[in-house]
Amino acid sequence: MRPGQSLSKLTARLLVKLENHFKHHRPDLVLAHGDTTTCFATALSSFYQQIPFFHVEAGLRSYHLNSPFPEEFNRQSVAPMAHHHFAPTELEKINLINDGIQDHKITVTGSTVHDAIHIIKTKNRNADHIPDIGTRPTVVVTLHRREANQAMQQTLTGLKHVAIERPDVMFICPIHPNPNVQNAFRSILGGHENIKLLDPLPYAEFISLLMKSNLVVTDSGGVQEESVYFGKRVLLARAETERRDGLDSGLVQLIGHDVEFTRRSIKQALCNSNFTHELLGENGMPLHASETIARVVERNIV
Amino acid sequence: MKNISIIIGTRPEAIKMAPVYLALKDRFGDSVQLISTGQHRELLWPSPERI
Fold first, then answer.
1. Is the minimum CB–CB distance between A239 and chain B shorter than 8 Å?
2. Catalytic residue from among A85, A166, A176, A257
3. How many domains, in total, are found in chain B?
4. Cβ–Cβ below 8 Å for B22 and A119
5. For residue A251, is it within any domain?
6. How confident is the model at residue A286, as a pLDDT?
């Protein structure tokens, strides 16, 4: 992110860049993912250039335009511009159909993050990318949401209380590089023996850390998805989520941002879990999202 | 040859689109391009082959 990057400037910059790219390379088909400003600008620019746009991870909805901000708006506005929608599950397909998208323009694929994790676990097996986390039970903490500065401080304060009460548990926090997030973590959680504050980890290392952890506290939908894949218990520090992963099975619990509720929820999860979860995720998760997407692209491009 | 562009801007997109890029490259070879908009620059980015 550039310093002081506003959404307007970012969107304008991306639209111009993308138009240049499209004019120069003349793609026959464009793909983008999810709900970022990049995805929104890609859909809009493809539409302006009349290039078919295919949307990966389509159909997630919170139905609150301001939460997550601006991602919910991005998703909703991308849908009418997309030629084809790749929905992770039937639920997202239903959301799209309720939005008026025709059935034949939607393919349910599963999540490509499962493919990514699978590649890491098979291809990179020999690489030494397991962070040293010691022998104590481990809680992985990641918080980054931009609309939640005050809320983040409350979550961190609740967490600090647990860390003081449970010196037998290690808290590992890879911190997002955003300066506000860095400051909040360092000022609230700094100076505790059982709290490790880390720079962001390469993805393979982060996945290894997740695999070895006992509990995850996060406000990230992506980390929620990855943790559930490994059957990890997740406390979601958000008021709501557009991702159903793990909510129905009880692996994921929404805990909001209240200091005391955060403290109690983490303590309870540490007691209840007994640190012996079944690896729900690795079995029964569809693994071929990317292949399915590639097949649909192939059908549409000849 | 048909050209395909995959556009990413943040690390999560890089991770989740890497397998899509690889699957498309298997079928379409070098006509598949992976393009970053540079929306986020500060996080560590994986190359698609290593994710």
1. no
2. A176
3. 1
4. yes
5. yes
6. 52
